[in-house]
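User: Let's play a game. I give you a shape written as C-alpha cells, and you guess the letters that built it. Ready? Here's round one.
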C-alpha cells in the first residue's frame, strides 16, 4: 500500500512540474506574439562616404518610423555593407540600383523607389569635351570608387581603375593617371565643396552617364516587413514630404521621384 502511495505522489509531482513548464512555454509564446512586444532594431548597412547612401539613410529613418519598425544604421564601406546584407549578418542595405537581386539572390527589393541616383562622367576642362558619349569609355582610362556597382555596369566589362574614395579618384584624374572618372553627382559635389579650389579644373559632363532608381534592399529573412515599408514609402510621398525632412520641391537625388517601379 505504501509503495502504491509513493508511486502516486511521484506521478503527481512529475505531472505538476510538466504542467508548470508547459504553462511557462505558453506564456513566453504569447509574450513574443504580442503586437507591442519590443524586438531588436533591424540593422541596416550604409556607407557614410557615399552621399547617396547618406541621403538614403535619412529617408529610411522616416520610412521605418512611419512603419513602426525599430532600425539601426551600421556605418561601413559600401562593398562590405552589400556583402554582409547578402549573408544575413546585416538585415539589409540602405540602397542600391535595381536588379541587384540577379547577382545577390538572398536580397529582396523594397519595390517602391526611394530616390533617383545620377551618375556623372568627370573630365579635365582642358580636354574640351562638351558632352558625355559612351565612346569615351573606349578612348580613355576610366576610374571609379570601389563598390559603385552602377559604374561597373556602365563600363560593361571594360577595364576600370578602382580606388577607395572620391578624393583619390579626382586626384588621379587631375594628375592624368586616368582620363575620365565616374561618380555619383551627390558625392562628387560634396568632395568639391570639402576641397574648395583643389579640383577646379574638373568638370562634369551632360547627359548623365547613369540615371537610375535607387531602392532599399533587405535580406530574405526579413521579407515579412517589405509590405509595411512599401506602404510607408507611398504614404510619405503622397503627403508631399521629403523623406529626409520637411516638404520641399522635387529635385534629382534629393527628393523621391513621383513614381513607383512595380
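Assistant: Ready! My guess for every position:
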Amino acid at each position: 500500500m505504501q509503495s502504491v502511495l509513493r508511486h502516486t505522489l511521484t506521478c503527481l509531482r512529475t505531472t505538476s512540474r510538466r504542467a508548470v513548464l508547459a504553462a511557462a512555454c505558453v506564456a513566453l509564446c504569447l509574450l513574443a506574439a504580442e503586437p507591442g512586444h519590443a524586438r531588436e532594431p533591424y540593422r541596416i548597412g550604409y556607407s557614410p562616404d557615399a552621399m547617396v547612401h547618406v541621403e538614403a539613410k535619412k529617408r529610411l529613418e522616416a520610412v521605418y518610423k512611419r512603419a513602426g519598425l525599430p532600425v539601426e544604421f551600421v556605418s561601413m564601406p559600401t562593398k562590405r555593407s552589400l556583402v554582409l546584407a547578402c549573408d544575413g549578418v546585416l538585415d539589409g542595405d540602405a540602397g542600391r540600383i535595381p536588379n541587384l537581386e540577379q547577382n545577390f539572390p538572398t536580397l529582396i527589393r523594397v519595390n517602391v523607389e526611394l530616390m533617383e541616383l545620377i551618375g556623372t562622367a568627370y573630365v579635365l576642362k582642358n580636354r574640351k569635351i562638351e558632352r558625355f558619349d559612351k565612346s569615351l569609355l573606349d578612348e580613355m582610362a576610366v576610374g571609379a570608387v570601389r563598390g559603385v556597382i552602377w559604374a561597373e555596369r556602365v563600363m560593361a566589362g571594360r577595364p576600370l581603375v578602382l580606388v577607395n574614395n572620391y578624393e583619390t579618384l579626382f586626384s588621379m584624374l587631375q594628375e592624368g593617371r586616368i582620363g575620365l572618372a565616374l561618380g555619383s553627382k551627390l558625392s562628387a559635389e560634396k568632395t568639391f565643396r570639402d576641397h574648395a579650389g583643389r579640383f577646379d579644373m574638373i568638370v562634369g559632363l551632360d547627359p548623365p552617364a547613369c540615371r537610375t532608381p535607387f531602392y532599399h534592399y533587405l535580406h530574405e529573412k526579413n521579407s515579412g516587413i517589405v509590405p509595411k515599408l512599401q506602404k510607408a514609402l507611398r504614404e510619405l510621398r503622397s503627403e508631399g514630404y521629403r523623406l529626409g525632412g520637411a516638404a520641399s520641391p522635387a529635385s534629382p537625388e534629393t527628393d523621391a521621384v513621383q513614381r513607383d517601379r512595380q
